[in-house]
Amino acid sequence: MKKLLATASAIAVLAAFAMPAHAECDGWYAALRGGMVTHDVDGDPGNPMFAESIDFDDDLLMISGAIGYRYQHWRGEFEYVWRDYVEGDDVDYTEKFKTYSYMLNAYYDFLPYNWWTPYVGAGIGLTQLKYRAFDKMGGYSNADYDPMMFTWSVGAGLSLKVTNRFNVDAGYRYYDMGRIKSSDVTAQEIYAGVRYVF
C-alpha cells in the first residue's frame, strides 16, 4: 500500500511539472523570419516597348514578422512579408520590380511537443506588385503598375524547440501572386526564423 501511494504521489508530482511545460508550448507567439526569395515574372508586362516577355529570376532578401496563436498541432498567424526589389537592364530600358505581402497562414506541426517537428503550411492573402520600366535616354517611366493581387502559398519545414517558449524554424514556401497584365507572378522562398511563445 505504501509503495502504491508513493508511486501515485510521484506520478502526481511529475504530472504537475509536466503540464505547465506543455502549456508553455501553446498560446500567442511572435515570429521573425528572413531568407532568400526568387521571383518568376513570365509573360508580357503590358509595355509595348519591351520584347514579348520578361523574366526576373534573381535571389533577393526577404524579411517577415508574424503574430500568431498555437494550440497543440495547429498554428495560425498574420504575417507581413517584405522583399527587396529586383532590377533588370535592357539596351534601352531599366526595369524595377518589388513585392510585399499580407498573409493569413496556417501550420500543422506533426510532433508539437517534441524537441523537433516537421510541419506543413498554407496561406492566403494579398500582395502588392510594383513594376516600373524607365527609358534610359529620357529617364521617364515607360510602364508603371501597382496592383494588389490575391495570393496563396504552400510550404513545409522543420522546427527545433530550444526551450518550451523559444523555437527555431527553417522552411520553404511557394507563392502564387497573381498577374501583372498578362504576366504570371510566382515566387519561391527559403527562410529561417525564430518564434517565441508569450
Record the SSE blueprint.
Layout: H1 2-25, E1 27-42, E2 59-71, E3 74-83, E4 86-89, E5 93-109, E6 116-135, E7 141-145, E8 148-161, E9 166-180, E10 183-197
Antiparallel strand pairs: 1-2, 1-10, 2-3, 3-5, 4-5, 5-6, 6-7, 6-8, 8-9, 9-10
Structure explained in plain terms:
- By secondary structure, the protein is mainly β.
- Helix content is 12%, strand content 65%.
- An eight-stranded antiparallel β-barrel has the order 1-2-3-5-6-8-9-10.
- The protein starts with a helix and ends with a strand.
- Mean pLDDT is 82; it is low at 10-22 and 48-53.
Overall pLDDT metric: 82
How many DSSP E strands?
10
Overall 3D form: elongated
Helical segment tally? 1
Order of helices and strands: HEEEEEEEEEE
Strand order of the largest sheet: 1-2-3-5-6-8-9-10
Low-confidence segments, given as residue ranges, are: 10-22, 48-53
Helix content: 10-25%
Beta-strand share of residues:
over 45%
Q: Rounded to an integer, what's the Rg over CA atoms?
A: 23 Å
Q: Given the helix and strand composition, which structural class is it?
A: mainly beta
Describe the biggest sheet?
8 strands, antiparallel, barrel
Based on the model shown, name its key terms:
8-stranded antiparallel barrel; 198 residues; mainly beta; 1 helix
What's a concise summary of this model?
It is built from 1 helix and 10 strands; from the N terminus they run αββββββββββ. With 198 residues, it is mainly beta. The protein has an 8-stranded antiparallel beta barrel.
